[in-house]
Amino acid sequence: MRSRSHKIIIKVKNLWKSFGPVGKRVPVLRGINLNFYSGEFAIIFGPSGCGKSTLLHTILGLEEPDRGKVYLRGKSLYHMSEDSRALWRRKKVGMVFQQSNWIKSMTVWENVGYPLMLEGYPERRIFEKALEELKRVGLEKMVFQKPTELSGGEQQKAALARALITDPGIIICDEPTGNLDSKSGLELIGILKKLNEVQRKAILMVTHERSFLSYATRRIFMKDGRVVEDEHN
């Protein structure tokens, strides 16, 4: 039984999603019901094509479901306009994807601080906050480089720093180590684990790396668009 201090931060109700032309649509999510709680480090695991990333994108408001509901911090995402959804997501969630999208003309600190630029923060404050988050991931010496000058592992750490810049309570990661070597992948998962344990950030991550399951406080196994097992530590 969960402590009262563990609140539901994401609720998924009877989620269905399919892709393809009318009459030939292929179901990818099949009636998924899940609650995610504050303080969790939840990993969604399963074979390629089982619907892991589609579930994550639907939770983020990026893929509208055929039916079902998603609540993020109590707000029903698909009762909002697309613009309102994007704003709510930007305020409440930090996101790390397998491929980081960089503004190539900007330095590392400017890319990391970009979400605060959108909010109209003064440049000095953005730099200070970006430096703080880059120190957290061990990249404080890279602030004035261009992101494309960083290694793959360093780019993912910078992407995590960018996800943290607005101090969200939830970090959502879609295969963040998919393009990394094993050493860089372990470094990144170690930083996520520390964020969960020390700062109590809720982490929701999709991965195909079985070795990462031991880092999670909760493991959700998917197959053929369904949740087939849900384990809590």
Characterize the structure shown.
The chain contains 6 helices and 10 strands. It starts with 7 loop residues before the first strand and ends with a strand. Helix 3 packs across helix 4, helix 4 packs across helix 5 and helix 5 packs parallel to helix 6. Strand 1 (8-19) and strand 2 form a beta hairpin. The chain has helices at residues 52-59, 82-92, 108-118, 123-136, 152-164, 182-198; strands at residues 8-19, 26-37, 41-45, 67-72, 75-76, 93-96, 170-174, 202-207, 218-223, 226-232. The longest helix has 17 residues, at 182-198. By secondary structure, the protein is an alpha/beta fold. The protein has a single domain (8-232), classed as Rossmann fold, CATH 3.40.50. A 6-stranded mixed beta sheet has the order 6-7-8-3-9-10, sandwiched between helices. It has a 4-stranded antiparallel beta sheet with strand order 2-1-4-5, covered by helices on one side.
What attributes does this structure have?
233 residues, Rossmann fold, 6 helices, globular
Please outline what is shown here.
This protein has 233 residues and is an alpha/beta fold. It is built from 6 helices and 10 strands, in the order βββαββαβαααβαβββ.
Instruction: Please write the string of helix (H) and strand (E) elements.
Output: EEEHEEHEHHHEHEEE
The CATH topology annotation reads as: Rossmann fold
Q: What is the spatial order of strands in the main beta sheet?
A: 6-7-8-3-9-10
Mean pLDDT: 92
Q: What's the number of domains?
A: 1
Structural class: alpha/beta
The CATH class name reads Alpha Beta
The general outline is globular
The beta-strand count equals 10
CATH superfamily: P-loop containing nucleotide triphosphate hydrolases
- In helices, the fraction of residues equals 25-40%
Compute the separation of the termini in Å. 11 Å
- What about the largest sheet? 6 strands, mixed
Beta-strand residue percentage? 25-35%
Q: Helix tally?
A: 6
Rg, Å, rounded: 18 Å
